[in-house]
Every structure is written in structure tokens, then in C-alpha cells.
């Protein structure tokens, strides 16, 4: 009970990863989640090599890599089926030091929850930041229906509409609409084999990707007014927008039940925050740096945040210096990725025939020069390394000083 207390507001991927990382670092952790149960909103998540290396610090990297399902070729296509650019899983793994792993969010949540004490997560508990605290003085205060909690550290992991962010930086304009909406489904695999792909059309993108359990994670994105909804259901909307695109897209949509189709408008935080901390309170994930999904890095950056935060905050360290170092580490990197994601999203949003033709011609030219040029988009992103060598890195080098079990509570 003499260990410092961290309160995490929100149990999404960033919040749970932060809780696990801080717990392993020696903090006493409580996660407050307003939902009645941990049923992940969303469908699939793509974990790139950068987040896998972050998860090495939690002794989770290898088990996540084992869930990789993409084998062989994949790439970018046009709605009619013509390939614009090809790459393959081996080339991606060689360039960035690991595979791309597609998995259902529920699987990742389950794996993270298994690494927390049984009473660490409190569902059905709405929380409000009363006071961010002072790094060199008063504790932070979090209000719940059951009373006020004093915390040595508060982690705001409450998503894109973060109330914690609003409390820390009330004058910041917050996220803005990115100009398009997304749909996500998880369905049984089609009868015929297919190559994983993203297909780029006029103001729209579709992706079909395999999961390790034999199902398909598919997603669509299209230019649309904010807060729109289809009067006859979102499955019908997908069929209108993508039903005449190449195989297996029509059959993938047909396999989804109406209630399985998730639709969400995309908002991003293109105006960076002045910091990711104030007093004893920090932000992780979408609350700190919401980004368009065009590079698939939203969840990956939340995982990086969590691991870097725990690295900077040993329980007996200088908290003020630690949270400042966390901002210094994360703000420039995530701001750059937000900007790059927004630029890529603008390419997806092109609707004029000449602009789409020019975009596709550039993609095709890049594809003819080989997978390396296509993958170069992720240089500086997927090749990220944690701030210090992880245990997995020591093990690979044959220099691990102790057995993994002896490192519990000390991931670095």
C-alpha cells in the first residue's frame, strides 16, 4: 500500500496498456471505465512492428507476433481489380523487423486484462478530473459516484472526446471532422482465397485483411457529411458504395449481418496540444493525438505512449521531470504522424477524375519500382524503437541478465 497510486480514466487500448506498463513498473493501478463491461467498440486493429516492440517491454510482443495471418502478396488495387502496387509480408517484415499483425480488438483487450490484478479495473464507474494536482505538491483528484480518489498520477485515456483533455487545456479547439466516415466489419472468410488489399477509388477506400482465426477484417472509408446515417441501414450503404467493386468485396459485405456494420465519423487533432501533461495528469492515445486511420497508427501510437510513459515514471523517480520527458518524447513524434495521416487521407478524399487518375498513376509508378518504395511510407514510423532495450532485445542478443520471471515489475 506504500506504492504510489496511478488512476487511469478509460479502458481502451491506450488505457489498458498504460495500466499494464505502470503495474509492471511498480505502481498501484486503478482503471476507471464508465461502460458496464469491457466489450471493445470497434472490430480489428493492425499492430505494426513499432507497437510490437513496445509490447516487448510488457513481455507480450512474441505472443502478438504469433497472431500474424498475412502471408504472401498484397497491395493496392483499383475498384475494377487492377493492381496499382504490390508488396508482400516478407518484404514488410524484413524492412521493419516484424510482421503486420491484424487482430480483433477483443483479443488484445483480453491479453492486456490478463496482466492486471483482478480488482484493478472498475467498470460502470464514471470519472471526472477535479484537479490535475501539482508535480511537486498536491495529489490529483478524481471524482466518482463512490467518492473522490487521490492519485499520485492520473492517466487520461478517455478517447477522442476526452474530458480530461478539456480539463487540462480548456482553450484548445479540440478535434475536427476529417471529411470522411468509416465502416468496419468482421465476417467469415470467403470461399475463394484472396490477396490482402486496400482498394482506392474516387473519394473512397476499401480494405480486406485476414485474421489468424480464419475470419476477415474489412473496412471502408468514404467522403460523406458528418453525422450521416443510412435510412435503410449501413450494410445497404456499403453495398451502394462498394457493391460493384472487385471480388471479394461484394461477398464480404454480403456476409455481414446488418447489426455487425459499425459506422464512425473520423475526427483528428490537427492542432497539436501544447503538452501531454499538466501537474500530475497525462494524456495518452486519441485524447492526446487523434489521427486519421489512413496510416493505421492510432492504436499503435497509444501503445507507444503507454510504454514510454511507464519508462519515464519509475515509482520512486521525479514525477515532474518524468511527465515533462514524456511530453518531450511523444509530442513531436505523434504530431508528425497526425500530419502525415492527414496528408494521406487527403489523397483518399480526391473525387475529381483527373486528380484520381494522377494519384493512381503515381501509385502504379511506385509499385513498378518494387515493394521497398511502397513500404517507404512507413519509414520513421514502423521502425521506431522503445526508449531503452527491452528484455526481448536482450534475449535475442543472448545477453538477458535474468530469467523473465525475475523481471516482473521491471520491464526495462
Structure, briefly:
The protein has 412 residues and is α/β, with parallel strands linked by helices. The protein contains 14 helices and 18 strands. The strands form four sheets. The protein has a seven-stranded mixed sheet. A six-stranded mixed sheet has the order 7-2-1-11-18-17.
Walk me through what this model shows.
This protein has a domain at 5-73 and 89-175 and 269-347 and 373-407: FAD/NAD(P)-binding domain, CATH 3.50.50. It is built from 14 helices and 18 strands. The strands form 4 sheets. It has a 7-stranded mixed sheet with strand order 5-4-13-14-15-12-16. It has a 6-stranded mixed sheet with strand order 7-2-1-11-18-17. It has a 3-stranded antiparallel sheet with strand order 8-9-10. A hairpin with a 5-residue loop joins strand 4 (73-77) and strand 5 (83-88). With 412 residues, it is of the alpha/beta class. It is globular. Helix 1 (13-25) runs parallel beside helix 5 (105-113), helix 2 (49-56) packs parallel to helix 10 (298-312) and helix 10 packs antiparallel against helix 11. It is 34% helix and 23% strand.
